[in-house]
Amino acid sequence: MNKPRRSLPKNSESKPRVFVAVKVAIDPGHGMSNATKGKYDPGASGGGLSEADIVLQWALTGKWVAQQMGIDVFLTRDDDSDVTPVSTRDNKAELAGCNYFISLHCDAASTTSARGLTVFIDKTQEDRDRKFALTVQNALISAASNKATSRGIKLETETRVKNLAVLDFKKGPAVLLELGFITNAQDRIYMTDRNVRVRFWQNFFAAVDGVKK
Ligand SMILES: [Zn+2]
After folding, report:
1. Are the C-beta atoms of 188 and 52 separated by less than 8 Å?
2. In terms of residue numbers, what domain contains 119?
3. Does residue 152 sit within a domain?
4. Which of 44, 67, 18 is nearest to 188 (CA)?
5. What CATH number does the domain containing 154 carry?
6. What is the Å distance from ligand 1's center to 35 Cα?
7. Ligand 1 mean position to 168 CA, how many Å?
8. Which terminal residue of the chain, N or C, has fewer Cβ atoms less than 10 Å from its own Cβ?
């Protein structure tokens, strides 16, 4: 018996496809005037390192990898003197035409054994952001060859401050990634490893852009 050939619905080829180019905002936390005007905010510290320095390195590596892969990025700051109050960062990224937002931080604890990455998402945007958060988490675990452990994907309400201003970004998925604990020696190893940074961004941009590796 001949099966009738299924034909494609009419116009399936001619429907206009809306192409939206990916533009990723990379937000290295802390820095100049982050919390107080005119004051440099180094963030947490551990092992002789500052959080602001570590996350800036991650952002700069991200910019370099993006250039290699032909991905458009915007950095909310790219040095120690850029004035970046925390309340303005999401708006700056929106104005720059970004449709993804990733904020980079390091965790800290009084007990040096505490470790692991955490991905935070906005409490009102869980549906929009959870898949993106998983992508970010998996990109880092894979990049660190499983030396990074995950504390999971959490809502901003689980932070001490209950609300993360940068997650008010409105133009697309947004996460705040705590890369690991600056107070933990094992986490500091992968957080300061350039190869891990490069692999993370390669994984991240490939996933965001839907490019097959
Ligand atoms: Zn921080």
Report:
1. no
2. 23-209
3. yes
4. 44
5. 3.40.630.40
6. 11
7. 16
8. N
User: From ligand 1's centre to the CA of 106, what distance in Å?
Assistant: 6
| The pLDDT of residue 212 | 41
Pairwise CA distance, residues 124 & 183, whole Å: 31
Q: Are 167 and 87 in contact (CB under 8 A)?
A: no
* Spatial CA neighbour of 205 closest among 136, 147, 146, 148: 136
For ligand 1, the distance from its centroid to the CA atom of residue 17, given in whole angstroms, is 39
Q: Are 199 and 126 in contact (CB under 8 A)?
A: no
Exposure string over 192-211, b if 16+ CB within 10 A, otherwise e: bbeebbbbbbbbbbbbbbee
pLDDT at 213: 41
Question: Given this model, what pLDDT does residue 211 score?
Answer: 53
Q: What is the pLDDT of residue 16?
A: 63
pLDDT tens digit string along 20-49? 789 999 999 999 999 999 999 999 999 999
Residue 163 domain-assigned (yes or no): yes
Are 188 and 47 contacting, i.e. CB atoms less than 8 angstroms apart? yes
Asked whether residue 10 is domain-assigned, the answer is no
When divided into structural domains, the chain yields a total of 1
- Going from the Cα of 54 to the center of ligand 1, the distance in angstroms, rounded, reads 10
Structure tokens at 188: 């500091």
Whether 3 is covered by a domain: the verdict is no
Ramachandran category for residue 100: left, alpha or beta (phi over 0 → left; psi -120 to 50 → alpha): beta
Q: How far is the CA of 108 from the centre of ligand 1 (A)?
A: 9
